[in-house]
Write a structure and sequence with these properties.
Order of helices and strands: HHHHHHHHHHHHHHHHH
Shape: globular
Number of domains: 1
Structural class: mainly alpha
Strand content: under 5%
Radius of gyration: 23 Å
Helix content: over 70%
Length: 425
């Protein structure tokens, strides 16, 4: 009986560990892609100041509907790519560490920057937004006093987030990534099962169109059924793509086929983008046109472009960017600090520059330059100040007394418990 029990426990424990067969030492193409997509996010959010039909915290006086069509080149696949990379990265980590260690790493690396972000980095965004909308007539220091108070009526028009009037804003990715990490752990016995492995092996041996069609349908279903909540739809799609990323991991059949289909992917993705732009401008923006068939058709094209756009970018980087360099190491560490800082810089800089009537060329150029410069300066400070590094998702560089390390981890864990509870509930 003890032998059977012991065997069962071993099998159960092993079900949380992904197969290491064909596992590469490092995928530099995914590191480069992560850096590039987060870099693209900075320009995307600057573009949000200028698009005419998309909501943002503040707006420039120089707005354009044409810009929306250019931004739609990347909008359908930019977040799916990040979730795919996150899923693949989680598979790498889980192949090397225990589930307990995985949860500990993710909790510290995601929740601590999130807590610092919502308490320190996000407040200037809310101050500028409320000032811009005419809902605030306070100095920044008076605003902060109200912000950190529980019973302030200043924020009555603004939604509660994690806590009353304290929301994650652009840092929702960190919150969702932590939630998805916990959900993934629960699903590991299924995702690592022989049944799933055999099913994937069969699928990757089929015609590429069959595999793509199967992957598209859940995306399409989510987009046409979960319409009452943008956040719910976004999270459902994000978790789906994270699962996709975990499953493709380092499966050789998938990556071999992907590398050999760059040309067809580019052609079909271009066609889908053209159709989607037509749908967006002629149907989606036309408030007088109410056709469920046209809407469903547009969402199908959108779903196809989400998958094909992501696959095209994955294929290109896999073929051309699987190389290591010192620059990659530098920018890989810079990703989280840049991500955490960039939107606050955009909103603060954009608001004050928009008061100067600089014109539709000089203004965005200055915002781009000052935002990127601010991110670099912020990162250079963060990477050199040891206690700031974990606050922005970076590992410590020095070795400390084990007792001090234990105390620090315990203190961090206790401080993060209220945040974790609010996110989960």
């Amino acid at each position: 009986m003890n032998i059977i029990k012991s065997s069962f426990l071993i099998q159960f424990k092993n079900s949380f560990i992904p197969s290491q067969k064909h596992m590469p030492n490092r995928r530099y193409d995914l590191d480069w892609l992560r850096v590039l997509v987060f870099g693209l996010l900075i320009f995307y959010h600057i573009g949000m100041l200028y698009v005419e039909n998309w909501g943002f915290h503040i707006k420039s006086q120089y707005q354009s509907q044409v810009l929306e069509s250019f931004m739609l080149i990347i909008e359908p696949w930019r977040m799916p790519i990040l979730w795919l990379i996150s899923g693949i990265a989680m598979r790498f980590v889980l192949a090397k560490v225990s589930v307990y260690r995985f949860i500990s790493i993710k909790s510290l690396r995601l929740l601590l920057p999130l807590l610092v972000g919502i308490l320190v980095i996000i407040p200037p965004q809310l101050f500028i937004e409320m000032t811009y909308k005419g809902d605030l007539n306070l100095s920044y220091w008076q605003f902060l006093h109200a912000f950190y108070s529980n019973n302030s009526l200043v924020f009555s028009k603004y939604q509660s987030g994690i806590w009353p009037h304290i929301d994650v804003n652009h840092l929702w990715y960190l919150r969702s990534l932590w939630q998805f990490s916990l959900a993934l752990v629960i699903l590991l016995p299924l995702l690592n099962s022989r049944w799933v492995s055999r099913s994937l092996n069969w699928l990757f041996k089929q015609n590429a169109f069959i595999a793509i069609f199967i992957s598209i349908m859940p995306v399409f279903i989510i987009q046409i059924t979960i319409t009452e909540s943008k956040d719910l739809s976004r999270d459902a799609l994000g978790f789906l793509f994270l699962i996709y990323g975990y499953l493709i991991g380092w499966e050789p059949l998938f990556w071999q086929k992907l590398k050999g289909t760059i040309k067809p992917l580019l052609i079909i993705s271009t066609l889908c983008f053209t159709l989607f732009i037509g749908f967006y401008n002629l149907v989606y923006l036309n408030k007088d046109l109410d056709s469920e068939f046209l809407y469903a058709s547009g969402m199908m094209v959108y779903s196809i472009f989400r998958i094909l756009g992501a696959l095209t970018v994955l294929a290109l980087t896999y073929k051309f960017l699987n190389i290591n360099s010192k620059k990659l190491s530098y920018f890989n560490d810079a990703v989280y600090p840049f991500y955490i800082l960039h939107q606050t810089l955009i909103i603060v800089i954009g608001y004050y520059l928009s008061q100067q009537n600089l014109g539709p060329i000089i203004e965005p150029i200055l915002i781009i330059f000052l935002t990127v410069a601010g991110c670099f300066i912020g990162y250079e400070v963060i990477r050199r100040v040891e206690f700031l590094r974990p606050c922005f998702g970076l590992n410590m560089t020095k070795k400390y007394n084990p007792k001090l390390v234990t105390f620090a981890y315990t203190a961090c864990a206790l401080s993060l418990i209220p945040l974790a509870i609010e996110i989960l509930l």
